[in-house]
Amino acid sequence: MKKYAKMIVDRDFRISEIDRRLYGSFIEHLGRAVYTGIYQPGHPEADEEGFRRDVLRLVRELNVPIIRYPGGNFVSTFRWEDSVGPVDRRPHRLDLAWRSLESNEFGLDEFSRWTSKAGADIMMAVNLGTRGVADACHLLEYCNHPSGTLYSDMRAANGRKDPYRIRTWCLGNEMDGPWQFGSKTPEEYGRIACETAKAMKQIDPSIELVSCGSSNSEMPTFPQWEATTLEHDYDYVDYVSLHQYFGNRDGDTENFLAQSVRMDGFIRTVIAACDFVRAKKRGKKDINLSFDEWNVWFHSNADDDDTMANRPWQQAPSLLEDHYTFEDALVVGLMLITLIRHSDRVKIACLAQLVNVIAPIMTEKDGGAWVQTIFYPYFFASRYGRGVALEPVLTSSRHDTSEFSDVNDVESVAVWNEEKEELTIFAVNRDLKDDIVLTTDLASFEGYGLIEHIVLESDDLKAVNSADAQNVAPKAVNRTETDGRCVTSVLHCASFNVIRLGKRHKEA
Ligand code: AHR
């Protein structure tokens, strides 16, 4: 059967205005994310605060709107007070999550100065593993209360007079996971999340709170966890979190590229759980979704197990340093398309993570910074995926994989930037052998013409980038034609495509 893809994009088929936080990311005190990643005093690229300028340049290029911090699993044994005040008085601690040594040389105030330079907001997580309501309140008071109290004055004494006004807060991390220190049953978590949320909103009603959802869609308690925990904390929280990582562990690339179907189902089920609780409680507001950890993660697993078991308590060991292949970048592209398609309910998403740890940006301790294959889909989505997501009425030829049936050969979504009068089509051709023509009907975008068609492609699905070689990098191609109403694009087999169109203004 001939392979094909057809799409209708209409300015009235609106999914939603995309929340800029959909293109967020994550920095955890884990491996070399902080030390020798974003912060390395003495490095030739370090600025006066020890922040690596080469990394900051790349983060700014990505235009990351919000960065989750300080964990992840790390947060569940973290004492935030250790990380503020005079550096020489900060304690060294055992980080139980990653069996590493945390020096606390870089803490909350340093991170906040770094995010200002990066142009990003902070999404702060509180420790609901080994700590609880009081500590979460103290941290919020330190960050957001203007002055005149113990913790707000402590912040001022530490050099920051004005409150940070951090808006988005996570109530713990992956609290259903047996690996989490202080993990909880759904009832235990629902209760502590409710009480913490209630107290935090009393301190600062302007904040938004994320309740922990299941650690991934394969957890045995998913989706009962969402229903039970939300029954407790629904009235006080604004989002529920989702986390998901994929890996091509058995070398089945066709099936790996279909994993975004699982992500799509995960999102739909969490929306259903939120809406079930809303109906049950006769609730008046929607709970939206914060997909605050997503990526490919599997390359480094065995080495990391070995490091943590046999060489524990190092400071900033190399952990989770996945070297991403071209096919990983395709999966990241497909995950981004899935997030944009659900932007009516997914308001926050964080590519996990940002630097050195399962990251688009890597650093050499004694050298420069470089970008992985997955940098590119994230870069293009963040740059051109702002505006209104349009419902793609998409029909595509399909195929089956070892786990999924009727998987579209082509996945796509379009984003309309009304202000700039630009329309961007993101499309992935999952087919590993055949080029496929994508025909897009643009009837309601009269006068729009092609700006450029950018593609990420490679003959080698396993190609990787390194400090010395950018083997996988985007390029502009001449594969799209427009006739005023129809856009015809040839999508190379196994490729990520960005097709940019803009309003043509008649010469006066
Ligand atoms: O991002 C790496 C880890 O993955 C995070 O610490 C944890 O939340 C998740 O399991």
List the helices and strands and how they pair.
Blueprint: E1 5-8, E2 14-17, E3 24-26, H1 53-62, E4 66-69, E5 93-95, E6 100-102, H2 108-118, E7 121-126, H3 133-144, H4 150-157, E8 168-171, H5 186-203, E9 208-211, H6 224-233, E10 239-246, H7 253-257, H8 259-280, E11 288-296, H9 301-310, E12 314-315, H10 326-341, E13 346-351, E14 361-363, E15 369-371, H11 375-384, E16 388-390, E17 393-396, E18 398-399, E19 407-408, E20 410-417, E21 422-429, E22 436-441, E23 448-457, E24 475-477, E25 480-482, E26 486-491, E27 495-503
Parallel strand pairs: 1-22, 3-4, 3-13, 4-7, 6-12, 7-8, 8-9, 9-10, 10-11, 11-13
Antiparallel strand pairs: 1-17, 2-16, 5-6, 14-15, 16-20, 18-19, 20-21, 21-27, 22-26, 23-24, 23-27, 25-26
Characterization of this structure:
- The protein has helices spanning 53-62, 108-118, 133-144, 150-157, 186-203, 224-233, 253-257, 259-280, 301-310, 326-341, 375-384, and strands spanning 5-8, 14-17, 24-26, 66-69, 93-95, 100-102, 121-126, 168-171, 208-211, 239-246, 288-296, 314-315, 346-351, 361-363, 369-371, 388-390, 393-396, 398-399, 407-408, 410-417, 422-429, 436-441, 448-457, 475-477, 480-482, 486-491, 495-503.
- It is of the alpha/beta class.
- The chain has two domains: 5-10 and 389-503, Immunoglobulin-like (Sandwich), CATH 2.60.40.1180; 19-384, TIM Barrel, CATH 3.20.20.
- β3, α1 (53-62) and β4 form a beta-alpha-beta unit.
- α6 packs parallel to α8.
- The longest helix has 22 residues, at 259-280.
- It is globular, with a radius of gyration of 23 Å.
- The mean pLDDT is 97.
- Bound molecules: alpha-L-arabinofuranose.
- Residues 28, 71-73, 173-174, 243, 293, 352-353 line the site of alpha-L-arabinofuranose (AHR).
